[in-house]
Amino acid sequence: MKPKLTLKQIAKELEVSISTVSKALRDSPEIGEDTKLKIKAFAKLYNYKPNNIALSLKNRKTKTIGIIIPEIVHHFFTTVISGVEHVANEKGYNVLVCLSDNSFDKEVLNMEMLANGSTDGFIISLAKETMQKGDYHHLQEAINQGMPLVLFDRAVDEIICDKVIIDDIIGAGKATQHLIDIGCKNIGLISTVDYVSVGKLRTEGYLKTLQKNNFSINEANILKIEGMEYSDEEIQKFIIDKDLDGIFAVNEHFAISAIKAVLASGKKVPDDVSVIGFTDGELSKLFIPSLTVVSQHGTRMGEESARLLIEKLERNDLEDENYKTIIVETGLVKRDSTK
Amino acid sequence: MKPKLTLKQIAKELEVSISTVSKALRDSPEIGEDTKLKIKAFAKLYNYKPNNIALSLKNRKTKTIGIIIPEIVHHFFTTVISGVEHVANEKGYNVLVCLSDNSFDKEVLNMEMLANGSTDGFIISLAKETMQKGDYHHLQEAINQGMPLVLFDRAVDEIICDKVIIDDIIGAGKATQHLIDIGCKNIGLISTVDYVSVGKLRTEGYLKTLQKNNFSINEANILKIEGMEYSDEEIQKFIIDKDLDGIFAVNEHFAISAIKAVLASGKKVPDDVSVIGFTDGELSKLFIPSLTVVSQHGTRMGEESARLLIEKLERNDLEDENYKTIIVETGLVKRDSTK
């Protein structure tokens, strides 16, 4: 009845990070020799099996797919899960969902747990912290050992695997162009910090479209938000002293928050300010005014991810290095928040 | 590399339901002898291990908790998951989430998969279909074999285990009483069909409170909705020809839908009609008018569920038959949708 030793426990005992333990056990050159020796000796003493991916390969065909997402209280990710479920069930696969809470350590631990004989492959959207660190050794390791992987939405160039993304730059361009077409002259952007890949790409789409239309770029019209906690206050402060007549927000929450800030400042939506969001959440449809959005098609992204993964699993050729990137096209859904 | 035989495959091969296979392998008196013999012989031939709960007990301490929820695109359930995650991580447990999609078969299959060595115990909110059938053999089986179980929100009396529920009757009573207190004379109820336990209890709270206040009960003022698919249309039809001045809806979606139907009929919220929902979703806070609600405290329900389960796991006494029911108290949050 003795609990299994986990990465986390080794890290705690030796007072090093989970990432250090994980890398040391894989002989990464990033870790000093002394540390590696110490960690390996400790793991051996307690009979720790480094991430049993190889083991699970032998017993492949659990007929289970693991999804790791950064957040659960977020409509987009729940629609992706629905999409994965739909295709997976059709093809006789079960689905397990884990949360990384945007934490690098939790992402590594989740992968360790799921690879441990529970799943045949992964569908992952990266944690914010993972992208910030730029540390993808846990993903590379899974791929190296033949565990198929699909990255969706928050994907990175550093990892070569199947990917399902949307045309973020083009989608943001559509939103910005629409604001220009309906006569907006001073267009603001509410985005996330740049290390979140989709935030960066959507910012790029906004900038490119302004340039293409010979609009000057005003850095003061761009707000980059780090966390959700104080986003309402940040957005209110951003909007109050600017004379924006158009706002493009990279998610649903920011867009709704922007509308409320505009209304609070005594202006009208869409008469004085037009607002476009990036989402296909329920809130956008139900809100008054209903929200004009660049539609993300979360369900379709989930379906495509499941199809790619299952295709790879059933081909069952570990040497197959033929990776696909599926780009799900965004669409502009016009509703009442724009003129 | 041969795939494991699953319950589902046996059911398909023998052209019987998953429930029949599951019960036959457990020697249930509900299944005829012939059928049992056939199913058992088939399972033996293919070396199927009936639900490896007993097996997993030996290897107990996966330090993983399995959550099975009916729906994922639903704010309440995502807040419960957050709550479970929070306590579980604090205590060094991982969390795996599975969806039943409100299907009995999927619930049984999910339990089979998770009990198969992946988890130490379950936190479950029952599928609609399970409650409709009243078939809880899969839950009873888990308990009989010493696999701890916590039911939350959609719990049933038939299963004796730890439970976390809210005071649905009292909560619905608070909403109804508030509508009466602010002067509503003709109060409508938008609920779910009765076999969903929480819908039934909230209806009971509404009825009891009307009676206590000597209001007559008008069956025409009660709408019971089966699925979400056509709920908007049903609610619109329900509201249009009635002279309601107060509406209590048992979830967020129904409440928002009711407000939109009232507005569409040319009346005002809250001037002509006051509306109360049952939720603590984001939408209620962000909607204009913001929604007066009976707060469900999903996060706290998740936290309490995780605490109960982990307590039982760490006591590690399979004979322990001391079960608790924690009732999370609801609160009335007054906002702009009521006078």
From TrEMBL, chains A, B:
Protein name: LacI family DNA-binding transcriptional regulator
Domain of life: Bacteria
SUPFAM superfamilies: lambda repressor-like DNA-binding domains, Periplasmic binding protein-like I
Alphabetized PANTHER family for the sequence: HTH-TYPE TRANSCRIPTIONAL REGULATOR GALS (PTHR30146:SF109), LACI-RELATED TRANSCRIPTIONAL REPRESSOR (PTHR30146)
UniProt-listed PROSITE patterns: HTH_LACI_2
InterPro entries assigned: HTH_LacI (IPR000843), LacI/GalR-like_sensor (IPR046335), Lambda_DNA-bd_dom_sf (IPR010982), Peripla_BP_I (IPR028082)
Sorted UniProt keywords: DNA-binding, Transcription, Transcription regulation
Biological classification of the source: Bacteria, Pseudomonadati, Bacteroidota, Flavobacteriia, Flavobacteriales
GO MF entry, a single one: DNA binding
UniProt domain HTH lacI-type: residue ranges: 5-59
